[in-house]
Structures are given as C-alpha cells and as structure tokens.
Amino acid sequence: MLGARQAWYGRARFDSAMAGGLTMAGVDEVGRGCLAGPVVAAAVILPRTEDASLDLMCVTDSKKLTAKRRHELANMIRFRAVSIGIGEANSREIDELNILRATQLAMGRALERLDIPVELALVDGNVPASTSVACLPVIGGDMRSLSIAAASIVAKVYRDQWMMRLHRDYPQYGFDSHVGYATKSHLIALREHGPTPYHRLSFGPVRDCIGDRRMVESG
To answer: Where is a divalent metal cation annotated to bind (predicted)?
Structure first.
C-alpha cells in the first residue's frame, strides 16, 4: 500500500506541477494497433487538490490492471472526475486518414466533449491531439500523470464495452476475447469469414487475410 501511495503522490504532484494554475485534462487513447473497431480517446479533468484525488490511489496504466479492476476504477474515476470526454475515430476514418491522424482526431473530439474548456492537455506519448488546446506530450504519461492514467482506464473500459457489443453482431470473430487485436484466432476468422464493416482495410494483416473477400454483414 505504501508503494501505491507513493506512486499516486508522484503522479498527482506531476499533474500539479504541469498545470500550474491552468485548467488541465489528461488524455490517452486505446486501440491504435487493433485490426477492427474504433480508436478511442478519453480526456479526464481531475480535482485540483491532491487530497480530493486520494481515493484514486490505485489508478495506474490500464495495461497493468485486470479487466475487473479497470471497471472498478473507471466507475470511481467517473464519480470523482470534474469532467470526462470520450472521442472516437471509426474504421472508415482510420482508413481514410491513417491511424496517426485518426488518433489525433479522436483525442481532439474527447477534449471537445468535456463539460469544461481546458487550457492545457497532457497527452500520453509523443503525438499531440488535433485541437486548438495547448498540448504537452508526455512519454510514458500513464505512469507519470494521474490524469493520463485515469484517461487510459476510461478509454480502455469504454472501448472494450464497444467491442463486446460488436461481438453480439459478429460472434464468429471472437471480439469478446481479443477486442480487435491481431491474435491468431482473429486472423483465422478473417481468412475464413472475410472482413466486417468495422475492420480496418488499410491495415496490412487485414489485407493479407482477406484478399478480394466481400464484407460480412451482421445478422
């Protein structure tokens, strides 16, 4: 518990130092490497004071958490956050723009959907959002910033739930297990059934698997 408290304190202090007196959001995305589904970004504004975010002590990079723990923390973040915005770029936009620009678009949309305008966005990684808001890219941000870590959890839970709904329409692809990533079972399903309208046709593994196969409609 002491280690978790120290990590939380470091992330909260990092946010305070970066924000100064500005209204700030942490931004992170999930789904860039997937073969299907949207790329999703979340923007999270946390309370300004460190004491107010103390019960977010266990918030960390979403990849280090179990699915159950992510859901628990996502609910806690929604309760404690000042505002949360979710942005998506769908598979068609990814194919038209490329994944980098689509990711920037999703992050910009997440910032636009906050209830409160922000003056600064801390963005995980080295790519700024497509937005007029001042962005500060932070390498390894989900381990350094509490607000970015919170955004990573919110984005991951939101996208996983999105893919669970897609699984109901296309159960043959196993979206409930791999959520769109390039697993062996996903590639086999692509070869066997062809792509859905939610697959990213510009991605090499999808092109290699489907050839001239027509899209599979739900139902």
So the answer is: 28-29, 124
